[in-house]
Structure formats: C-alpha cells, structure tokens
Amino acid sequence: MKTYVTILLFCSLWHTKGYSQEIKNPFFGLYSIIGGDSVYNTFEKQVKLVKETGYDGIEISGPENFVAMKSALDKLDFHGAYFYFMVDVDQSRIDPQLRNYISALKGTNTILAPYITSSSNQYKTESPEADAKVVKLLRQLSKWAKKEDLQIAIYPHFGFYVQRTDHVLKLVKQINRKNTGLS
User: Which of 53, 105, 178, 181 could form a disulfide with 110 if both were Cys (CB 3.0 to 4.6 A apart)?
Assistant: First the structure.
C-alpha cells in the first residue's frame, strides 16, 4: 500500500510541477453560436457579446460577411480567430477577392479554414483528378497566406468533396507547404 500511495503522490506532484503540456490555442466561438439571433442582430452586437462572454475570438463566416464582420472586430478590438470559406474544386482558380480578405487579416493570426466542395457534384467521392485540382488551388491559397504570415487549416465537412480527416491529411501531404494543415 505504501508503494501505491508513493507512486500516486509522485505522479500528482510531477503533474503539478509543469511537466504537463499546456494548450495555447485560442478558445473561440463559431459564428453559428450567435448568427441569426433576433436581439444580437448586427455584427457589432454579436462581437461585443462574444467578447464579453470571455471567448478569445470568433469565426468570420464566409466572404459574404467578411467586410462587416472585420469592421466590427476592428471597432471592438477583438479577434477573428477563424475565417471559414469555400474552395470549389470545379473552379480553375480561387476567387481573387479572397486575396484581399487574406491581406486584411495580416498580423491577426486568424486561421484560414477552407472547406472543399464540388458545385457541379461531379466529384462526390475522392478522386485523383479532383485531388490534383484541390492541391493546385490550395497551393495558391498557401502562397497568399504565407505572404501575410497566416496558417491554413483545411476543414473536412460531411457531405462536401473533402469530408474525412484522412482525405485532408492526404491532401496536406501533397500540398506540402509549412503553413497548410488540417482542422
């Protein structure tokens, strides 16, 4: 029994002496926690509530909301932790407007979180042809992000072209850029 108690005591002291790993990721809310609320019906009100609630940041949900959300974040000195947007495997290039949004995020440490779709539904399951297109598109995105010192975390989403973590990992290895990973 003494040996058992000694081991437990040692383990508990070892844990409290700083030998455990600290998580340093920001604790942020996805936009869906507040979007569509009838009282908090402006980006400014939404950002203010999320900030006052104690979160480190909030998601910027899509390019269609970028300008208004970024304005509210800047006004309230708050952090857009995650910029969630679509990359369409059926397009030959990434929407050039995204480059402006990415530039506007320079210095914010906002994570770029693309989800990958096939608007034509031509690619419903993983295919080498579609993967090659995704790799090309995300290498371009990676180049833009690198210029602004931002990271990319590809977001797998059920029902979209890239829906599984193992598929994202395969793509990340093919993209082969230090600032590109997975969510």
Answer: 105
Nearest of 17, 75, 20, 22 to residue 45 by alpha carbon = 75
pTM for this predicted structure = 0.84
Helices (H), the chain: 2-14, 43-53, 66-75, 97-104, 128-147, 165-175
Report the C-alpha gap between 148 and 180 in whole angstroms.
13
What tokens appear for 124 in the block?
Answer: 């419903």
Integer angstrom CA distances of residue 99 from 22, 33, 63, 140, 146: 33, 27, 11, 10, 11
Query: Distance between CA atoms of 150 and 106, rounded to whole angstroms?
Result: 7
Structure tokens at 26: 């920001």
- Amino acid residing at 62: G
Tell me the per-residue pLDDT of 137-154, one tens digit each, with 9 for 90 and over.
Answer: 999 999 999 999 999 999
Determine the Cα–Cα distance for residues 158 and 76; give it in Å rounded to an integer: 34
